[in-house]
Amino acid sequence: MESTENKKESSDRVSVVGCQSQLEGKSETRELDGMHLKKRFSLMSMIAFGFTTMNSWVAFASGLAVPLVCGGGPVLIYGLLVSGVVTCTIAAGFAELASAFPSAGGQYHIVFMVFPQKTRHVAAFFTGWISVVFIMAATASCSFFVCELMLNLISLWIESYVLEAWHVYLLHVLLCGVAFISASRFPDAIGRIGIVALWLSIAGFIASLATLLAISETKQSSTAVFTNFQNVSGWGDGWAAVIGIASCLWAYCGMDAPTHISEEVPNPSRNVPIAIGVTLGLGIVTVVVWNISLLFVVPDILALIESGIPILGVYEVALNSRVATTIWAVYYIVLFYNIVLNLFIFSGRMIWSLSRDGGIPYSSYFSHLRWASPVRATAIMFVLQILVGLLYIASRTAYSSFVGLTLFALNITLILPQAALLFGGRESLPKRAFSLGRFGYAINALATLFGVFFNIVLAFPINYPVTGTSMNYLIVVFAIGLIVTIFAWSSGVGKRFTGPQLNE
Question: What is the pTM of this model?
Answer without folding.
Answer: 0.85
